[in-house]
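This part of the workshop introduces the protein records we will be handling. A record pairs a protein's sequence with a compact description of its fold. As an example, a complete record with its sequence and its structure tokens follows.

_____
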Amino acid sequence: MIKKIIQFILLVAFTPIFCIALLFLLISPIMAVSEIIAIIQHEAPKENVYFIFLIMISLTLYLSMRVSAFRKIYGKFPVLWPLSQMLFISLTGLAFGVFFMNLWAENEIISKPIAIIFMIVSLIVARLFMSYWYRKNPISTKMFI
């Protein structure tokens, strides 16, 4: 009985954190694409906070899968886990894209065409990894039952 009460309290405390992380995960790719476009148009660097977002989101996703009380959310909403995986992998590619664009815009370490090529390659690598990942581990809701 006490264990269930503690699990419920932890679940109530974790739910807002999970919702915020999911919101960041949904909005961050749109923000990253708009920042890449702004870097190209204005030729000025932007802050790359996406690696920090990735660390916070990965910790939240890890806890949501590791703790059985938190994992119940995926049983109720089975689309959340594959969606969060896809968005996380896409955000990783976009974070590297912003990084490469900032290398050009801030310090001119690499030229603009090379930065754009690296950015496109990072997006392609993220998509190829996603294809590989889902070929090896097909999406299934049975893992949450």
Summary: Residues 2-42 form the longest helix (41 residues). The chain is about 85% helix and 0% strand. The radius of gyration is 18 Å.
